Amino acid sequence: MSIENKNAAITPTELIDYAKQAMKKAYCPYSGYKVGAALLTKDGRVFTGCNIENASFTPTVCAERTAFFKAISEGNTDFSAIAIVGGKDGVISGVFPPCGVCRQVMSEFCDPRTFKVYLGTETDEYKSLTLAELLPYGFSKSNVNI
Ligand code: THU
Description:
The protein has 146 residues and is an alpha+beta fold. The protein has a single domain (2-143), classed as Cytidine Deaminase, domain 2. The protein has helices at residues 12-23, 63-73, 100-109, 131-134; strands spanning 3-4, 33-41, 45-50, 79-88, 116-120, 126-130. Strands 1-3-2-4-5-6 form a six-stranded mixed β-sheet. Helix 3 links the parallel strand 4 and strand 5 (116-120). The N and C termini lie far apart (33 Å). The relative contact order is 0.17. It binds tetrahydrodeoxyuridine. Tetrahydrodeoxyuridine is lined by residues 28, 31, 33, 35, 51, 53, 60, 62-64, 98-99, 102.
């Protein structure tokens, strides 16, 4: 299920606020790091996600991928931006950049030149990057000929 924002353009700050709400749902008994993400579709829907850890460690999924897989599994594949926040015990202290695996998942579905990644902080300040800046010379479907 998504949050619909059909009538109002959503600002980076509003998207970051959704990520901050999603962060509260994090299941992270092993690391204690709570992470939240809010993924914006081109038609104005917001899909949120949190990190979900596992006693066996490797099945752990990041907040960003939770948001992507929720959106894609509900038929949404066109995205314009994602907001990400995180911090130990849910205390945000500066930016919390996406891991390499999440950057790779973004690159499967998003135009690296236009897709925006907003890294929220504990204040109203945030860092705005394109996927191309986060994943230069990335490997994507354009490199696969099958
Ligand atoms: N984590 C995320 O949710 N997103 C990232 O991009 C980096 C890491 C989570 C995974 C794990 O639950 C915790 O943060 C500590 O690595």
